[in-house]
Here is the input.
Amino acid sequence: MPAIVLLGAQWGDEGKGKVTDLLGERVDYVVRYSGGNNAGHTVITPDGQKYALHLMPSGALSPSAMIVIGNGVVVDPKVLLGEIDGLAERGVDVSRLRISGDAHLIMPHHRALDRVVERYLGSSRIGTTGRGIGPAYGDKVARMGIRLQDLLDPGILRKKLELALREKNQILFKVYNRKAIDVEATVEEYLAYAERLRPYIAETRVMLWDALDRGETVLLEGAQATMLDMDHGTYPFVTSSNPTAGGACVGAGIPPTAINKVIAVSKAYTTRVGSGPFPTELFDDNGQHLRKVGHEYGTTTGRERRCGWFDAVVARYACRLNGVTDLVVTKLDVLTGLPKVPICVGYEINGKRFDDMPMTQTEFHHATPVYEELDGWWEDITKARTEDELPENARRYIARIEEICGTRVSVVGVGPGREENVHRHPLLP
Here is the structure.
């Protein structure tokens, strides 16, 4: 089997971890290709165990799949080691982890700058998690980043850190009146991480190429989602990497010709964490219903998620942009009990109808959703496992999403558990 990309079709938190876990026993490699510990996947196992993963690929809970952190990820070694230890304490085999030596490190100055700059921006803040992801990617692009492989050479590590802090400490101290970062203490801290991480650092590109040559299945797992993509999302309210399908090739070193399936995950409604435009956002009782019933709080931050109706314009954009072959719609059960379930089928902007994403940030900011209202359902759907077991109105809702997005809906989530799904089409042969 060639490579499969799994990504989010909205602003993140769609339930990608659940889908990865669903496929985990049938794939040989699960590769995280973008983002850092600003992302979070929640996976609930059949025995009711709940795992919140941040840097570790969701495939960590698979009994046999190799788990890989690709070159496109930025890694906070302290966070990663804490996650490794936490999984090991719960009996999860973490010896299958491999990390690209070309993945960039999140350093103390990245975290310090992320927090202070966000506070300085005030009402214009982006809504970052303050974990240093943006500054780490900034240094990567500026060609002054520090990589995992640098942990294996103390001389290079020290030299690169001294060069970086020559500038960063000036900014922290003189611009923001913050304490400068100590070079010696940081080198000592990161060399301690190096000793523990050394067994996991590998040339992951060759590993994945060899796996594909053997006909093994490689699942490429994106963090965040399409609308947070640096190039294709709602810039500047985006993440600092490319979680779209194209980013999988760059962030894992997989050739595009190896990918034959792109699975996108979308909630049956829409959520967003942080700042930025959100046309279908609800501020009424319906929004509270979605938040309360859907337990809409960030896996990584604990922040309340902003909630709104399903935005088919966004979903269709994601399907076309990523070349999606299969759509997974999660949390359909959250809509149970609502008399009407609107779908945003277009926008009105300055009196003009838009059926696709508007070109400019200003237009999108002023977009008013055009809704199509469908009748809701009252039946409990959490026990449904086939499409016929869903209420007629629920089936109509899914069929309409499929029609507008132009992509088949293969799986519908009807609860948080691994088995709580309706399979309409197989995700894997």
Remarks:
- The domain at 3-101+200-263 is CATH 3.40.440.10 (Adenylosuccinate Synthetase; Chain A, domain 1).
- The mean pLDDT is 92.
